[in-house]
Amino acid sequence: MYIKTSVTTKLKLLNMLENSSLGSVSIFVPILANMLTNSYLMVGVIAGAYGLTQALSYIYFGRQSDKHGNMVMLVRLGFLTSAASFYMHILAYDGFTLLLLRVSAGVSTGMYAGALLALAHSKGNNSGLVGVVSFGSLGWLVGSLSSGIIQHISNNYNLAFISAGSMFLLGFIVSLRLEDINASNNNCNICIDAYLSCNYSKVRRRLDGLLHLIHLLRRNRAVYSTFMLRHLGASMTWSIFPIFLHDELKLSSIEIGSIYAINALTQFVFMSKAMGRIVSMHNMNSMLLQLGTMLSAFVFILYYFATSYLYLVVVQVILGVSWSLLYVGSLINLFNLNGNGSKASVSSLLESMISIAVIVGSILGGMIAELFGLRSVILASFVLNVCAFVITAVSRFNRNVGVSMLNGIVRKLLILVKVSSN
């Protein structure tokens, strides 16, 4: 029991440090990119390049993690290379160098994500997964606030990059004391792979891996399509959101940092206090997607009419709840629908959906902002989130849940009628 608790605590700390680092730079990278390029479209291209490399990294290393069982090694490698990548961000002096550095960050941050989530869901532990994910929100809170304060005091983006690299370096040190939970299974996987390598060609093994990923995509298409469409709309807005806050609403660096922090704080509190009880309720896991997309659509129409800081504080609370429902609900549904040998792959594919959405959404967001203005991007995000909600409402995945709930209600009504007639 002590070993389990110790591993979970280390995973929580790792996820917190990772998200502290990502949160500390994500707010100001779009603003810095806009300063260096003076183009909304180039801001989108830089964000899209980051998302593309991250998506490819998620898919490749997630598959390698399931195939070889080397989860802890990938976590360590990912944190170490991420530290180096974020330290190097201080070298950015124009749009092209920033683009290259964001590409390197995409590769390094994609190495560990699937393995970290798979370790968190060891042996079907939903509550352990929720706990680890909630500390990611806490990390985003710390990173957002610290970055806003640093930028307000120093007016120097390099300090935010140095802080981000240091958090990843600390995470690497923590990961050195992390042991693989399923070491025996990993050895078995390595032996099987060694046997297969002696009997099949490299091309055949790669083809099998590709077919396996396609199978996972088809099997979980209801979750992936909903999540992809929602995040596509969100990424359009996130690509220009710091610029919107800074240029159109005239918020200070501390106010911008606190806006992001409120979202992260809401996620942490909601996941810590409510999500554990919600996911334990019968038939609630599949409903989380529907609730999450519905609230997300509501958030983006509220953004469209935003005029003040206090108004956005309320919207960020709703955003935090909607993302908690959507993200945790997606992960739990994927892990429950797929076996232990595919956990890193399905979670990496979900993270890849985020990155693919960042690629397309960032470029679209930059184009729309360039042509029609910043608020038009937010309106387009609202439309896509409505479409995501419609998919959840009509998908067979959720219809089956609705049918089972309806049957339960009908059975209870029949029992009540029978009792009253007697």
State mean pLDDT (0 to 100 scale).
79
Give the low-pLDDT segments.
1-5, 183-200
Largest sheet: none
In which range does the helix fraction lie? over 70%
Report how far apart the termini are: 53 Å
With helices defined by DSSP (H or I, 4 residues minimum), what is the helix count?
Answer: 18
How do the strands and helices of this protein lay out in sequence?
Layout: H1 2-26, H2 29-37, H3 40-68, H4 71-87, H5 95-109, H6 113-120, H7 126-154, H8 157-175, H9 183-199, H10 202-219, H11 221-238, H12 241-248, H13 253-279, H14 287-304, H15 309-337, H16 343-372, H17 374-394, H18 396-421
Helix pairs in contact: 1-7, 1-8, 2-3, 3-5, 3-16, 4-5, 4-6, 4-8, 6-16, 7-8, 7-13, 11-14, 11-16, 11-17, 13-15, 14-15, 14-17, 15-16, 16-17
Brief descriptors of the model:
disordered N terminus, 422 residues, mainly alpha
Mind explaining what this structure looks like?
The protein is mainly α. The chain is built from 18 helices and no strands. It is globular. The chain starts with a helix and ends with a helix. 54% of the residues are buried.
Question: What can be said about this structure in brief?
Answer:
The chain has 422 residues and is mainly alpha-helical. It has 18 helices and no strands. The termini are far apart.
